[in-house]
Amino acid sequence: LSAALTEVAKNFGGKQRMTENSIQPALKSVRRALLDADVNLDVATALIDGVKRRSLGKEVTQGVTAEQQFIKAMYDELLDMMGGDASQQSNRNPSLQSPVASLAHSPDFATTNKPTVILLAGLQGAGKTTAAGKLALYLKEREVDSDAVKQMSEEERASTLASRLPKRNRRVLLAAADVYRPAAIEQLQILGEQVGVEVFSLGADADPAEIAKEAVEKAKREGFDTVIVDTAGRQVVDEELMEELRRVKKTVEPDETLLVVDAMTGQAAAFLTASFDSAVGISGAILTKLDGDSRGGAAVSIRGVSGKPIKFVGVGEKTQDLEPFYPDRMASRILGMGDVISLVEKASMEVSDAEAARIQEKMVKAEFDFDDFMTQSRMVSKMGSMAGVARMLPGMGNMIDSAQLKQVEQRIKRSEAMIYSMNKKERANPDLLLTDRSARSRLMRITEGSGLSFDDGLAFMSEFQKMRTMISRMAKQAGMGQGQDDSE
Ligand code: GDP
Ligand code: MG
Q1: Same domain, yes or no, for 455 and 409?
Q2: Would you tell me how many other CB atoms lie within 10 Å of the CB of residue 180?
Q3: Pairing outcome for strands 116-121 and 256-262
Q4: Residues 239-298: pLDDT tens digits?
């Protein structure tokens, strides 16, 4: 898909407004890429419609290009399609989107002696038993040990930990309810040993529902707060398997019934999820083998086709290769342009559309004043240091001379100091400092007030004047001022 998006960039050719014509070729190549990735046809169509709705007629946010904004629209649609909402965004507050967070925060957790029960279902070879071991490890770990927390900055860590301890840190019991393959019980026992979690089994002759029931009773007696039930699978969906799952489900009333599906099966995984849901009722999916060369079709299609969320993803054969499913991370991964998205997000966060429109209008009329200057430079500084922003642009990372950037940042700081020393009238009316008779004495007062030399002041004013003229010319050229003379 990222190849398609690189192609997309060419189609926009620096246009400032997205029109039907300018986005049509882009939509076409994105559609082709989605189908190539084995995304379900209906889901692909819905995605394209959504991107169109989000892009058509939209002005391009200041500080980003049309193709970057298009990619962001694509990203937002993917996010919606995969069930992303604010609480599930990995970069906001990683501790809040754990798919089991709802379990950890359930009010009856710890107040009753009913353990949380997680039932795993799926076809043979999908990765159920492996997922059982992985999930046991994940739930057993403290959140402090998890990768998401390790990736946080000190600051983020302190704030999340302070508000959310204790974390998972659960006492897990694994239940071996796959009685059809003798090796299945042993496989789970080995996994249990690896992750340090006890495995409950009644041997290969017992009834799966009975195994699950006794495991839950043992958990209550011995203070386990979580039971994960591994079940049998078949080669294909059959009624016998569904009936068995229904029985286990009725017996232990699991909090989560998770379908384990193989990402390599592409959009077939989505249909499988839908059929398991109608036959036994599931609460979500664990998408395995995402480390292989699956093309993303399953991840994009599952929720759109079945209505069920993906809760975890398996990314390898080892027990630690399980991650909560974060729609935003997956969307970035599918687009292959994660950093562009955070750049666009930051840029559009700082300039509301209304504010951007107001500034643009002023630019065209050359009314750009010191307040606007401040708004803009504040936007830059809120986006992080300029060097940081530049590094987020694909391919720009190495081309930036950081000494140069530091200089620019310093100049902006100096300008800000001067603007702070101006009065309201002066800020809104730069001519008072440029051409007015009182200009010289005003400038003297201001430079003194800001601790700068008069020469600094003169330099700033000449720079500002140049910038104002340049911006006005650029704005006219880019056609921002509709109805204005654009014969230039
Ligand atoms: P089950 O029949 O559903 O219980 O499947 P298993 O848990 O026995 O897994 C079947 C095979 O898939 C095993 O060889 C696992 O190592 C492998 N497997 C499971 N999950 C993953 C994963 O996320 N990535 C990779 N690469 N292999 C996996
Ligand atoms: Mg198994």
Answers
A1: yes
A2: 14
A3: parallel
A4: 999 999 999 999 999 999 999 999 999 999 999 999 999 999 999 999 999 887 777 889
**How far is the CA of 211 from the CAs of 42, 175, 193, in angstroms?**
41, 7, 19
Pairing between β-strand 172-177 and β-strand 116-121 as defined by DSSP bridges: unpaired
Shared-domain flag, residues 49 and 102: no
Rounded-to-integer distance, Cα 35 and Cα 51, Å: 16
> How far, in Å, from the CA of 126 to the mean position of ligand 1?
6
Q: Whose CA is nearest to atom 12 of ligand 1?
A: 127
Q: Is 423 exposed, middle or buried (0-12, 13-18, 19+ CB in 10 A)?
A: exposed
Give the domain range for residue 428: 351-477
Look at the chain and report how many structural domains it folds into: 3
Q: What is the CATH number of the domain that holds 66?
A: 1.20.120.140
**Is residue 19 included in any domain, yes or no?**
yes
For residue 99, give the 3-state DSSP assignment.
coil
Task: Pick the atom of ligand 1 nearest to 134's CA.
Answer: 20
Q: Does 438 share its domain with 403?
A: yes
Nearest to 228 by CA among 184, 178, 176, 273: 176
Q: Is residue 488 part of a domain?
A: no
62 belongs to a structural domain = yes
pTM over 0.90: no
Pair of tokens at residue 32? 């082709």
The three-state secondary structure class of 175 is strand
**Do 107 and 80 have their domain in common?**
no
Q: Which residues line ligand 1 (CB under 6 A)?
A: 122, 124-130, 233, 260, 288-289, 291-292, 314-317, 321
Residue 346 lies in a domain: no
Q: In this structure, what token pair is assigned to residue 100?
A: 């089991």
Query: Do 65 and 103 lie in a common domain?
Result: no
Tokens of 193: 């040993």
| Structure ipTM | 0.99
pLDDT single digits (tens) 12-34: 655 566 777 778 888 888 888 88
Asked if residue 269 and residue 178 are part of one domain, the reply reads yes
305 CA → ligand 2 middle, Å: 26
Atom number of ligand 1 nearest to Cα 132: 7
> Which of 124, 128, 129, 130 to mutate for ligand 1's pocket (most ligand atoms within 8 Å of CB)?
130
Which of 58, 84, 110 is at the close of a domain? 84
- Output the domain CATH number for residue 441: 1.10.260.30
Tell me, yes or no, whether 131 and 262 share the same domain.
yes
| φ/ψ of residue 27, rounded to 5 | -60, -40
Instruction: Compute, in angstroms, the gap from residue 258 CA to the centroid of ligand 1.
Output: 15
